[in-house]
Design goal:
By secondary structure, this protein is an alpha/beta fold. Strands 4-1-5-6-13-12-11-8-9 form a nine-stranded mixed β-sheet, with helices on both faces. Strands 2-3 form a two-stranded antiparallel sheet. A hairpin with a 5-residue loop joins strand 11 and strand 12. It is globular and about 45 Å long.
């Protein structure tokens, strides 16, 4: 399946940010500028949400067309599970913000898109599980930054068609780990782990790779275009 991409009408989406810490211990919000470039190319204006404010109500209005949960960082379940082989990067402030953003999309029937961390957060929010990427087997460990193939499972990207995508995650979702009502549309051909899921009725989309970073075959634009 190869559909010529056509830019959609301009829309405003809220996007969550990472939390980082300066050398002096002060926390700050961070969002890679590549997100803005990438989504602007497909007609979406991003509005970053501050994690360090007490309330996010000021961001929530009728001008918002959807929400994106960005990548980078870990979800709370990784911290509590002990499965990580490195110190988890988790911030309570971001978790609270993303919970509110998810609840906002549900209440207002708006599209919700999760990228990498964001995909794992969505699955966790709706009751799914997560696994260490190496599946507890050293021989299946996969380094970050590499490219690998994914295979489509249905017509969202073409059944049995393959695409090359990047990898920047340390943990993964197995099909059995998916929350109820989330449908897997692509898997990693190496380990059969979930690379994308969706729920059309509730307008939920999860992508495990980082489409805003250098990529060989950018199928994500077509997925997002078709989804929203």
């Amino acid at each position: 399946m190869k559909v010529k991409f056509q830019q959609i009408l301009s829309m405003k989406y809220l996007i969550s940010q990472s939390v980082k810490i300066k050398d002096n211990g002060v926390k700050f919000n961070y969002l890679d500028e590549e997100y803005k470039r990438y989504f602007n190319d497909i007609g979406i204006e991003l509005i970053p949400v501050d994690n360090l404010e007490n309330e996010i109500d000021g961001y929530l209005n009728d001008d918002i067309h959807g929400v994106i949960l960005s990548g980078s960082g870990d979800i709370k379940k990784i911290v509590n599970s002990g499965i990580s082989k490195r110190n988890p990067v988790f911030f309570h402030e971001r978790d609270v913000t993303e919970n509110k953003l998810i609840e906002y999309t549900i209440s207002n029937n708006l599209p919700l898109i999760g990228i990498c961390h964001g995909m794992q957060k969505i699955n966790d929010f709706f009751g799914g599980e997560i696994q260490p990427y190496f599946h507890c087997k050293k021989e299946t460990f996969s380094e970050q930054g590499i490219f690998h193939d994914i295979r489509g499972l249905d017509n969202l990207i073409g059944k049995n068609l393959t695409y090359s995508v990047n990898q920047y995650h340390d943990h993964c979702i197995l099909e059995d780990n998916l929350a109820k009502d989330l449908k897997c549309f692509a898997v990693d051909v190496r380990f059969n782990t979930v690379e994308g899921f969706y729920n059309s009725e509730n307008k939920i989309l999860g992508i495990q790779w980082h489409p805003e970073r250098k990529i060989n075959d950018d199928i994500a634009k077509e997925i997002i275009h078709n989804f929203i």
